Amino acid sequence: MDNAIRILIVDDHFMVRMGLAGSLNDMDDMQVVGEAGTAEEAVRSFRQLQPDVVLMDLCLPDANGVSAIRRIREESSSARILVLSINESEEDIYQSVEAGAIGYLSKSVEPHELLQAIRSVNLGETFFPPAIASRMTERESRPSLTTRERQVIELLADGLSNKEIARSLHISPRTAKLHVSNLLKKMGVLDRTQAVTAAIQRGLVQLD
């Protein structure tokens, strides 16, 4: 197993990690060298183990997986990170790739495709199935929202009025109205309801 692909699994569910580790360790060319259940553990384990490939979930208890990807890439610009997540929204995919992931798979992926992805990513190749690649293309065609606009869309999703948004963000009602207007234009929608619906579909906001 000297030439095996050394893999770090990052997922907050023990049973998921156990199942993945068992399946991957059955492969002649793969070896799971570590597991992590939080973003902090992921960064620490990467630093200690220096794996060839990191399998990264995005839903972690202490931080979004995207931040863990970014921190690992700060540790090593050549880190090969493959996202394996239940989240498949265009924003999740876009943010993961922006942070440094070079592959992205849904947790519903077939086993043979996961193995193919790990081997490709280990070689430094990108791996995005057609459905994922299509969402990436859609997201790249849209203008990015500013940090303030992202705050506004989250407050819109909470049902706040312009006055309430202004109060929450400590800005004037006129400025809040301007942000909402800019949001509608950027998102290509006609009203606040459509903006919230589109934001949920694209993964810009998460419903509790």
Write the layout of secondary structure elements.
Elements: E1 5-10, H1 14-25, E2 30-36, H2 39-49, E3 53-56, H3 65-75, E4 81-85, H4 90-99, E5 103-106, H5 111-122, H6 130-140, H7 147-157, H8 162-169, H9 173-187, H10 192-202
Parallel strand pairs: 1-2, 1-3, 3-4, 4-5
Describe the fold and architecture.
The protein is an alpha/beta fold. It folds into two domains: 136 residues, Rossmann fold (3-Layer(aba) Sandwich); 56 residues, Winged helix-like DNA-binding domain superfamily/Winged helix DNA-binding domain (Arc Repressor Mutant, subunit A, Orthogonal Bundle). Helices cover 54% and strands 12% of the residues. Helix 2 packs parallel to helix 3, helix 3 packs parallel to helix 4 and helix 7 packs across helix 9. It is elongated and about 65 Å long. It starts with a strand and ends in a 6-residue tail after the last helix. The mean pLDDT is 92.
The chain-level mean pLDDT equals 92
In this structure, how is the largest beta sheet organized? 5 strands, parallel
- Given helix and strand content, the structural type is alpha/beta
Q: Briefly, what CATH class of the largest domain?
A: Alpha Beta
Distance between the termini: 44 Å
Number of domains: 2
Radius of gyration: 19 Å
> How much helix, percentage-wise, in residues?
40-55%
Taken in chain order, the helices and strands follow as EHEHEHEHEHHHHHH
CATH fold descriptor of the largest domain: Rossmann fold
Q: What is the spatial order of strands in the main beta sheet?
A: 2-1-3-4-5
Indicate the proportion of strand residues.
5-15%
By CATH, the architecture of the largest domain is named 3-Layer(aba) Sandwich
Low-confidence stretches: none
Supply the number of helical segments: 10
Q: How would the global form be characterised?
A: elongated
Number of extended strands: 5
CATH homology-level superfamily of the largest domain: Response regulator
